[in-house]
Amino acid sequence: MGEFRARLGGHLHLLRAQARAQASYRMSFAIDLATNVSxxxxxxxxxxxxxxxxxxxxxxxxxESLVMAGLGLCAFNLADLTVGNIERxxxxxxxxxxxxxxxxxxxxxxxLLAMDLPxxxxxxxxxxxxxxxxxxxxxDVDWTPARVAFALVxxxxxxxxxxxxxxxxxxxxxxxxxxxxxxxAFTYGGRDFTSYPVTVYDGWFxxxxxxxxxxxxxxxxxxxxxLGRADPLGLPAWAGWAAPLVCVPAALVAGLVWRTGVRxxxxxxx
Length: 270
What we know:
Blueprint: H1 2-23, H2 26-36, H3 38-50, H4 62-82, H5 89-95, H6 97-103, H7 108-115, H8 122-138, H9 145-170, H10 180-194, H11 203-212, H12 220-227, H13 237-242, H14 247-263
InterPro entries: ABC-2_transporter-like
Protein name: ABC-2 type transport system permease protein
Transmembrane segments: 29-53, 65-84, 122-139, 151-177, 208-226, 238-258
């Protein structure tokens, strides 16, 4: 317990130092906050633009689609804020910084996450949370205590899922340093995939990404549970309520890949 507290204290010290350093340049930090939200604004605007030419997309109204987009963007942006900088690991491996991280008396994953915490991305998460809140209020949700709790749990579970994707794909850099674009296909590609109803996709693409990789359980299935709608694709209603559990196997697999990568890491000699 004492060792755990010491490690936790070390990581918190790194986080506080990062926060103080980034906030010390207030004007620069304010500009970063304002400009970073633009990407999420464009994601939401794209969904809205689709509904200027049709009343339904994949069988869902604008308010229902924005619930899915809000869930997906909340989950992704929270994961990107807390874990997303792990995608820089290929830079740490190439420059030899990973060697220094491994000899310090703290866990390497916690150190890497705390070394470059992108606080500027908090504006993206706050905007996505606002979109989700407004969409839920306008979507005529039959609110119950269970649905209120589920509306809070679903984005957090989705963030764990996306965090696992970030860590798992970044770990490939231990074997293949230039693997960044492959990882982006699953992280940023997953963000775009979860911003729309799964019913707009078809064939092998839907089977692989929605159900094989689990992206349907980040936003689409939880949204069905919140909206009280039956799944047009035929899954039972309990699948929506159980959707957050998909983050558990994802986190376990990502942890296994990370630990295997660290054990097999060989210094670049930089």
